[in-house]
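Why do we care about 3D structure at all? Because function follows from shape, and shape follows, mostly, from sequence. That is the central idea of this module. The next example makes it concrete: a single protein chain, its amino acid sequence, and then its structure expressed as tokens.
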Amino acid sequence: MDWSLIKGKHPLSIHVAWLIIVPAVLVLSRFFRPPACAFHSLTGLPCLSCGLTRAADALLSGDFIGMLYFNPLAVLFCATLILYSFVKYLEYIFSFRIVARLNPIRARIIRLAVFVCIAANWLFLIVVER
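And the structure:
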């Protein structure tokens, strides 16, 4: 992997909006019940984001083990998205951009690893009968 820093001012990324959207959704989920999952209603199987609202509620309650039990991959994805948004915000403030380049083999390995994680998470949700 080849890392490089590029100097210069870049426009504020849309990812910074997640720093506002995620906490707002977590607070609003306390007052409004989310709609029923159409995928679960049609197939009887959990969708890939099944348990995400319950995981967010567990996070707000301080139950970190319960948060991971409801949907481990979705929680990891949200945490990664927040971290990525924070890095993008720092890039904007300090006028630089981090660029990572992968060779095709490593990129393929990462794609395969992501697919395996998604499949394993879905199998976990099916086994624990969401």
